[in-house]
Structure to design on (134 residues):
DNA sequence: GCCAACGTTGGC
DNA sequence: GCCAACGTTGGC
């Protein structure tokens, strides 16, 4: 069971939008590394939903409801489907992760431009604790 | 196949 | 709004 993190600018697509939509096609990813990560996502795996630019915090958790498939509209891209699962009781900010010290090798901090990345089980648990979630 | 120029992302 | 980091493009 792997864990993931996806980023979205809330002005383009926010956690509220994701919650209302129930299930979305996560499309428009062109970055090679992000696509490799998307290919590795399996049904039912959990994904942190991070607000970039505005908020800069992890706000909720989605689950993978459809594994990677090619984008019919763009042969250089592909999709996974994500469904909102639950919000975090307390969002975890980028500043909090940076000042904590345990997350220096988290993709979000190490490679800030990557939009889809794996999260280790240890990091996942630590972030869940910071969020006041189980 | 190299690399300079350019575009985009995202933190500050 | 600025700029660093990094990906992509195109001329050679």
């Amino acid at each position: 069971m792997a864990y993931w993190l996806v980023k979205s600018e809330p002005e383009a697509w926010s956690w509220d939008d994701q919650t209302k939509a129930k299930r979305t096609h996560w499309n428009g990813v062109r970055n090679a590394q992000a696509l490799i990560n998307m290919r590795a996502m399996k049904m039912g795996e959990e994904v942190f939903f991070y607000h970039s630019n505005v908020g800069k915090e992890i706000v909720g958790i989605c689950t993978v409801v459809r594994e990677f498939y090619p984008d019919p509209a763009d042969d250089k891209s592909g999709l996974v489907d994500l469904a909102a699962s639950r919000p975090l009781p307390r969002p975890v900010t980028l500043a909090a992760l940076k000042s904590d010290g345990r997350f220096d090798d988290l993709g979000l901090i190490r490679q800030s431009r990557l939009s889809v990345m794996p999260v280790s089980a240890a990091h996942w648990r630590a972030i869940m604790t910071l969020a006041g979630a189980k």
